[in-house]
Design brief:
This protein is an all-alpha fold and 709 residues long. The protein is 94% helix and 0% strand. It is built from ten helices and no strands.
């Protein structure tokens, strides 16, 4: 079928197919490279900054939570300053996230999470301010408690000292000893109850357990009942005033403890609300980071798939282009050089005088037309030679006509020689044209080879691009892993920080309260020593009274025996002395009970001292655990810093991979341009072949004219 197609059409179709295939491969490569470049740009401009901002929000939120929790536990205002600074950082990072979401509308998850996080951070900031106010109020109430407790102890000790003095006077004969001893026992119980309330107050604050302070508040009715009974038995204005002061101080202490408990519970509720709000902020930050990492992974996978598909298509296209180019080159070369070579050989033999040759070329293109013209020319030449031979034979028969026939024969011979020379010249021209067409075919083959090398180089660049995308995908996976590790380390750091803060708060409060308890117990031991000494003096007085009473009873009995009836008065005296002795014995018994009570109080004080020693040991253990927790926090924070550095390094590697991809795209574009230039040169070669085809047509026309002549 191709034998009947013109040479120009053959060349145009062949090179048109090559140009079309090359352009298709180039367009596919540019399209895939553009898609990869676009996805790489989104990674660098949208998702990597999104993950970085989310990590900054999470880290600053954790630091703010740690500082605020430490402030709530230790009431150290430096933690409040530190927490406020970190909250300002959180607000700044959220503003940055808001701007990033507005600049990139496709970051839907970031826009949603930023709004949620902003609302929760505002709520957390409000709760933090309320926490600060509550802690300041607690400090004020604590001072009121201390003042009320000090006033209570001062008035109670003053009343105790006054009753001790009056007890000595009563023992010396200036009043009732029993009432004084009863009041001494009651005021001692009041003081012990007050000390128990203070101990439970301190224990509640050191252990961070409101149950103890509630137990302390429950002891106030017992104290108020005892003070009321003492108030009913007191007639001295000074003692009444002292009891009223004790009652007022106890009521103030109770009111302060009740207010402190209410504010403390409110503070615990605020802590819970702060934790809930902070967890929401951290959850939004983690969701944003997870979404960014997921989008990054999706884009990386899509880029790898796109490059893999493009590489396969380009490789297949290159193989097809090479095979098609070789086939077209062979077909065109054989279609042009085969007929021309047979025509040149035919013309050469005819020029040598062999007119019996047959030109075996049967096609309708320029080469076929040239072969047909040469065959007709040889046939005409053979006819002319035959006519010359016939005329020569006729000349031999006719002598007279010999000269004329010879002349005509010579003329015909010259004409034949001219035709032969013309055929030789035309054969030379045809051979030249054949050589030029062969040269053009070789040039076309060279252009095809150059296009093939260009497509091979495109394939290599596509392979390099695929490798770069695989490296970038690996770095993206590394970023995701480091971000997940950083998030896990941040959670662990937060947990350890919470434990460390709790332990530190407990240690600080425990140490302070243990010191206060130890100091108060020392004062109580001193007071108990004084009380024991005072009671010892009273016991000495009572012993003296008992001795004197025994002497009086003995003397009265002797005098009554001597006096007889007159000694009845002495008998009355003896009876009174006996009654006094009984009262003395009762008072001695009560004093013994008081001494036992004081001894029990001393034992309780010793037990409290032992409790204080245990508390010191527990505080020491808490301090050790605090150090270990803080050390673990430092290690976790260091690990988070290293992971953030790994994320930054991976991001730089992604940027470098994107630059390498862009360079590969530029090289592919340059190769496509070179391919287009090669196709243009091929087009010029096709035009030259078409020109040579025109020259062949002209030669064929001349041969036709000569053959017709």
């Amino acid at each position: 079928m191709l034998k009947d197609v013109k040479l120009g059409v053959k060349l145009g179709l062949g090179f048109g197919l090559l140009i079309l295939l090359s352009c298709g491969l180039g367009v596919l490569a540019v399209y895939n490279m553009t898609a990869v470049s676009r996805n790489s740009g989104r990674l660098a401009q949208e998702f990597v900054p999104e993950v970085a901002i989310a990590n900054n929000v999470e880290r600053s939120s954790l630091q703010a939570m740690l500082a605020m929790r430490s402030y709530s536990l230790s009431e150290n205002h430096d933690y409040w300053v530190e927490g406020s600074k970190h909250l300002n950082d959180v607000h700044a990072f959220l503003d940055q996230a808001q701007k990033h979401a507005q600049a990139h509308p496709r970051l839907v998850a970031l826009k949603k999470d930023v709004g949620l996080a902003q609302a929760k951070v505002d709520e957390y900031t409000t709760l933090a301010g309320q926490t600060d106010e509550m802690i300041r109020d607690l400090s004020t109430v604590r001072k009121q408690m201390d003042a009320s407790a000090a006033a209570f102890m001062k008035n109670a000790n003053a009343y105790l000292a006054d009753q001790q003095i009056k007890a000595r006077l009563a023992a010396a004969g200036d009043g009732s000893v029993i009432d004084r001893l009863q009041k001494l026992a009651w005021i001692t119980e009041v003081i012990e109850t007050g000390e128990e309330i203070r101990v439970r107050n301190f224990k509640s604050q050191s252990l961070r357990d409101p149950a103890y302070i509630k137990e302390g508040i429950a002891l106030f009715p017992k104290m108020e009942d005892i003070v009321g009974r003492m108030r009913a038995l007191s007639t001295d204005d000074k003692n009444v005033a002292q009891l009223d002061a004790i009652k007022a101080a106890a009521e103030g202490y109770k009111q302060a403890m009740t207010e402190f408990l209410a504010k403390w519970e409110n503070l615990r509720a605020l802590d819970g609300k702060r934790n809930t709000a902070s967890e929401a902020v951290l959850g939004a930050a983690r969701d944003t980071a997870t979404a960014g990492i997921g989008h990054t992974q999706e884009l990386a996978d899509a880029a790898v798939d796109s490059l893999s598909l493009a590489s396969k298509v380009v490789i297949g296209g290159l193989v097809a282009a090479v095979v098609l180019g070789i086939a077209i080159a062979l077909l065109l070369t054989r279609a042009i050089t085969g007929p021309m070579a047979r025509g040149v050989a035919y013309a050469t033999k005819v020029a040598d005088g062999d007119l019996d040759q047959v030109l075996d070329v049967h096609q309708k293109d320029e080469a076929g037309q040239l072969a047909a013209a040469m065959s007709r020319m040889v046939e005409n030449l053979k006819e002319k030679i035959a006519e010359a031979e016939e005329q020569q034979q006729a000349a031999a028969a006719a002598t007279k006509e010999a000269q004329g026939a010879m002349s005509r024969a010579q003329a015909k011979e010259q004409e034949v020689r001219g035709l032969l020379e013309t055929m030789g010249s035309l054969a030379d021209q045809a051979q030249s044209i054949s050589e030029r067409m062969s040269s053009a075919s070789e040039e076309l083959a060279a252009q095809v080879e150059q296009v093939t090398r260009g497509t091979q180089e495109q394939s290599e660049r596509m392979g390099e691009t695929a490798t770069a995308m695989e490296e970038m995908n690996a770095t993206v996976i590394e970023v995701a892993r480091n971000a997940a590790d950083a998030s896990s380390s941040a959670d662990k750091a937060r947990a350890k920080a919470g434990e460390g803060a709790d332990v530190v708060g407990q240690a600080v409060s425990g140490i302070g309260e243990v010191h206060a308890i130890t100091r108060d117990l020392q004062e109580n031991m001193v007071d108990l020593g004084h009380k024991a000494e005072s009671i010892g003096e009273v016991m000495n007085v009572i012993s003296d009274i008992a001795d004197q009473t025994n002497l009086l009873a003995l003397n009265a009995a002797i005098e009554a025996a001597r006096a007889g009836d007159a000694g009845r008065g002495f008998a009355v005296v003896a009876d009174e002395v006996r009654k006094l002795a009984e009262k003395t014995m009762g008072a001695t018994k009560e004093v013994g009970e008081s001494i036992l009570s004081i001894q029990q109080a001393a034992r309780q004080s010793q037990e409290k001292m032992q409790s204080a020693a245990k508390a010191v040991e527990r505080v020491t253990d808490l301090a050790g655990r605090s150090g270990e927790a803080l050390s673990e926090i430092v290690e976790l924070v260091g690990g988070s810093a290293r992971q953030v550095e790994g994320i930054a390094t991976a991001a730089e590697q992604q940027s470098a991979a994107s630059e390498e991809i862009n360079r590969a795209i530029e090289q592919v574009s340059r190769i496509v341009a070179e391919t287009a230039d090669g196709m243009a040169q091929s087009s010029l070669a096709v035009q030259e072949v078409a020109t040579m085809s025109g020259e062949l047509n002209q030669i064929i026309a001349r041969l036709k004219q000569d053959g017709a002549g």
